[in-house]
Amino acid sequence: MGESSANTATGLLTELGIQIRAVGPEGVPGALLILREASRWVSSRGLPGWSDAELQATDLPHHSAAGALIVGFADESPVACMLLQRSDPKYWPRATSGSALYLHKLAVRRAHAGRGWGSRMIAWAKSEAQRQHIKRVRLDTWADSRLAEFYGTHGFRLIDHLAELRDGMVMCRMECRSNRCTLLHADRPTVQRSPLHGRERKGFREVNPQ
Ligand SMILES: CC(C)(COP(=O)(O)OP(=O)(O)OC[C@H]1O[C@@H](n2cnc3c(N)ncnc32)[C@H](O)[C@@H]1OP(=O)(O)O)[C@@H](O)C(=O)NCCC(=O)NCCS
After folding, report:
1. Residue 207 confidence (pLDDT) above 50
2. Residue among 108, 124, 139, 175 whose CB has most ligand 1 atoms within 8 A, to mutate
């Protein structure tokens, strides 16, 4: 994707009070708040998620220094976050360097959930991969879960199931192609019907699919 179209999309979002960008150390407390809240929400629903120990071990200052901590802001308030890393030796140990960006720790503040933030963050990740001339975005998640389905509706396909269990559940690896995205006005959202749930989803339109 050329810089000009990336800038156009960014400009549009900024006008809407929406900004997604890599943050430095100053963004770490906001991201931690989002992750902790998401983790509490997940465990309150009896679902597998990140333990406190795992969140503590996630070295956000290190990731922010590497440009891998991405935060979504609504009117300058941090509402979504993710890590976008250049390698994932744990789940993708044999991957060639530079073949993918690896998405981890995607989370949205509950007050902003269900408003397309997950979609926006994923769209940003795909666009960023394309901007860096990296062909894929990859992730790991719980197999056959609502989350795997969520990622499936965002273009991720199942690569394989992993032998290792996490929280007693099978994990899987998924990937999608990088892609230039046009982010639409929040007051005129694209409404997509999930083929699986028939639910309306606010989102974005991808252009130039590969
Ligand atoms: C995943 C997430 C970023 C998506 O945010 P969003 O785009 O605003 O969408 P929603 O919060 O409405 O979530 C989409 C669906 O995924 C479900 N979901 C979200 N996290 C889930 C989890 N950890 N396990 C199972 N289902 C989950 C939601 O319940 C919702 O399902 P529904 O549409 O059937 O009600 C957000 O739900 C979140 O922060 N989840 C907790 C953290 C997490 O699990 N991150 C992913 C790690 S792989």
Report:
1. no
2. 108
